[in-house]
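Slack export, channel: ligand-projects

TW: morning all. Re-posting the request from yesterday since it got buried. We need the structure predicted with the small molecule present, not the apo form. The ligand is magnesium ion; the SMILES is in the block with the sequence. No rush, but it would help planning for next week.
GE: picking it up
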Amino acid sequence: MTPPTRPPARPRPRPRTVPVPPPPQALSGRDAARRSLEALALGDAFGERWFPLFRDRSRAYAEIKARITPQESPWHWTDDTAMALAVQQVLDQGGFIDQDRLALCFARTFDADQGRGYGHGMHILLPQLLVEPASWHTLAPTLFDGGSLGNGAAMRVAPLGAWFADDLERVVEQATLSAEVTHAHPQGIAGAVAVAVAAALSARGGLTIEAVHEATPQGPVRDGLARAVDVPFATEPWRASDILGNGQRIRADDTVPFAVWTAARHPDDLEAALWATAEAFGDVDTTCAITGGIVGARTGVEGVPREWLDRREGLG
Ligand SMILES: [Mg+2]
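GE: finished. pasting the full token output, ligand included:
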């Protein structure tokens, strides 16, 4: 009896000899985070120029209206950028937010240069974290009797949103972790979530206030975003800030809705977004840092005037 004919052997796949590149999304997330960070720092440094310390209000009003670039140099960045650099450092090291490490990075950054305009709460908290970083667990929730609801967690978080832009659930999770270290109040955290989601959507080319509102936890920040949805983009920014806030109260709900509104008003034009944000004054380094970080996740800083980049203090 003739044995059955065996089918010819199929060629075996050759072993893979080339390294597998990382997923394109991961690469683009890292790039988008860097773009966002550069723009956040630019917004921070640009916005800072409009404080009365540098020019009185009537001069600032006239120069912003006429779009006259501040001629002094350099434009120093402030605590917004200092803390964003610390967040970036932790992401670069591990690819996620290690909260104890972040606490130590914030504390070291503060200790290295305390003159960056940090808020009162950070002057209390960060020196203690330098001694014992893990004490943020107990110290941050007791700051201001219930945790800070300031805009400090929101002002530094846009690059994180860009980093995780391909996964919005992870954006919310990591933004929350980054906020809790210093801003334990639910509205301090909500501000960070809103800005991180806005930056992620911007990096993906799909920023809408409605989508940011949808992803933001319940409370005054979310309520402010709901009001922002109903403010037409034809509205002058200073009028919009009457409805949405301008950061003057240094609270997340007083800051984030307006900064997200101006970002959504100029999603492809960083320069226009920053001028519009500056028109409202208030906590103008922080509103411009937030708007810059969100828009810059998409645009980078290449489109702004060369002299802006030349005047901005470098990131080291
Ligand atoms: Mg600042």
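GE: first-pass observations. Confidence is low (pLDDT under 50) at residues 1-27. The longest helix spans residues 24-48.
TW: perfect, thank you
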